[in-house]
Specification:
The protein is an all-alpha fold. The protein has five helices and no strands.
Length: about 100
């Protein structure tokens, strides 16, 4: 018998409507943080270097990038981060259905 894969586990878990709802609610936050990390790394910056550029502490950058963070960053913080790594922030809206 083969071991179930993560994809199998995820499919089974998301079949539960309550799990699916929570997953969907967290997806945007996860994608944002994943994007921030990728942009910082692409810019060749450490958390410490980025913190220096933004006149803040490394722990604040770490918290901003942490997918398990319970705080939501301000839009101006995300914009400052994007500018520091050479990007401008663009926000778009998509219809729900």
């Amino acid at each position: 018998m083969t071991r179930p894969t993560f994809a199998d586990f995820k499919t089974k878990a998301l079949a539960d409507p309550s799990v699916k709802t929570e997953y969907d609610e967290l997806a945007l936050s996860y994608e944002l943080r994943k994007s921030l990390i990728g942009l910082r790394q692409e810019a060749g910056l450490t958390q410490e270097a980025l913190a220096d550029m933004l006149h803040t502490q490394k722990s604040n950058i770490s918290r901003l990038e942490n997918v398990n963070s319970t705080t939501s960053p301000k839009l101006s913080t995300i914009e400052d981060y994007a500018n520091a790594v050479g990007y401008k922030l663009k926000i778009s809206f998509e219809p729900m259905h």
